[in-house]
Amino acid sequence: MSPAKEKAFYLTTPIYYVNDAPHIGHAYTTVAGDVLTRWHRQRGESVWFLTGTDEHGQKVMRTAAQNNTPPQDWVDRLVETAWKPNWRALNIANDDFIRTTEVRHTERVQRFLQGLKDSGHIYAGKYEGPYCVGCEEFKLDGDLIISNGEKLCPVHSKPVELVNENNWFFRLSEFAAPLLARYRENPEACQPESARNEVISFLEGTVQDLSISRSTFDWGIPVPWDTDQVVYVWFDALLNYATAVGLGDEPTSEGGKKFAQTWPADVHLVGKDILRFHAVIWPAMLMAAGLPVPKKVFAHGWLLVGGEKMSKSKLTGIAPSEITDHFGVDAFRYYFLRAIPFGSDGSFSWEDMSARYTSELANDFGNLASRLAAMVEKYCGGVLPLPSSDAELQTVLSSTVEKADASMCALDFQGGINAIMDFCKRVNGYVTEKEPWVLAKDPGKKAELEGVLYNTAESLRALAVLLNPVMPQTCEILWQSLGANESIGSINDQSISKVATWGQLPAGSIIQKSAVLFPRLEASE
Ligand code: MSP
Fold first, then answer.
1. Which one of the listed residues 151, 158, 312, 326 is annotated catalytic?
2. With b meaning 16 or more CB within 10 Å and e meaning fewer, what string describes 480-494?
3. Of the residues 244, 309, 399, 417, which has the fewest C-beta atoms closer than 10 A?
4. What is the domain range of residue 404?
């Protein structure tokens, strides 16, 4: 028998509603997921990274109707012309893309639901109460704000609708106690701390059973034993994380093997707006089915515009291309994770992004690379001299790698990137202190000059690997300019645990000037 494949580090993003094209809030989550999974791959782990689209429910159905388009045509078009191209443009290396209208999903959802029905977790009932189509959520009166006598959803600032239907209910309340115990005992299960506290206090209140079907429209997955009803869109959508990896398939089948390698998910990345669905409803569904629950739900903050959550419905959505056209894809990937502590809200500003682009990316990082190439060309004919070492740089690099790795694995992207960029600053300081242009004037100092250039090149090798998960295109260019593909292999094969091993670039490597890594910004009108 062949040995079972190693458990993959399995990370998911939310699946996005396809009522409209993506904005930078959606890109924020997916880029974070991409950086984290690239980091784990670079640690040598086996990784599975899933994203996708949430295509059923009233929100999507109504948008399609407003555009005089059948819902299936509407979602097909948006997925193919807006969502998938957007992720390609942002260099997202997802392993799979799930759509909730795919048969592989709908069949498994029906099978899962039937299983819960058969085991007594589902019963017939009547739902009467407010519903926000923007959130696709049954609301409690306490969740709403009153404005001019109207009850509004606080997220969408729009009136809620009154639902009065005979539906199928899931016995969610039965899982409040085990969930509470889980979150109290296991701080890692829900992060950051503020999110965990919110979930704990929700579970300490009265948790009601959940209506999991709708009968007044048909854009959804039919309830298998009552086809006049469709599955509630969140119940359908949450299951994507498991259907995409073979939920419920025979253990010896392709899907069954995939499930064994991936489940439980290591991290569900979500925005804080959808924390309760992921930290309460989803694990309860899994517990009811006797399946392991995800190891961690991490709720990040919102990108704000004018102090409110950026959203297309409030016409504050910025398309990622508006930013990447100006700053480039890698600066986009870098900026939000560097500027905003993951877990806190943050505002986007062109001024702040321009300032960081110029000082951190163009001056600290890009210039270091171009200075090295220029000096190796001028003083050594473009050929890397004999290996050398610098005790201080090596020590700083070792602690940088340790700090960056611990931060990244804890989803502290800002801490991780800061540690790496501090090393970059240190290397700039090293070059300034050593003054290779002065050493070059004295033939007696040739060995010293060569040592400085070698140490700078080695530092850039390390920076390229460490920044590769964040800025893969730029780091590949830098890697090529160091001649590293020929001497030490592809950048993606360089392991984080070996980055601090000094002396990897061999003497004789051809160092070439590359295109400017971060070109000067055109003045915007
Ligand atoms: N379809 C549901 C998720 C189902 S997951 C089983 C949904 N979709 S969504 O398109 O409205 O938003 C998904 C996610 O996009 C949010 O949770 C969040 O991760 C991200 N963001 C959307 N707007 C955002 C901001 N303004 N700021 C940061 N992230 C934002 O909810």
1. 312
2. ebbbbeebbeebbeb
3. 399
4. 350-498
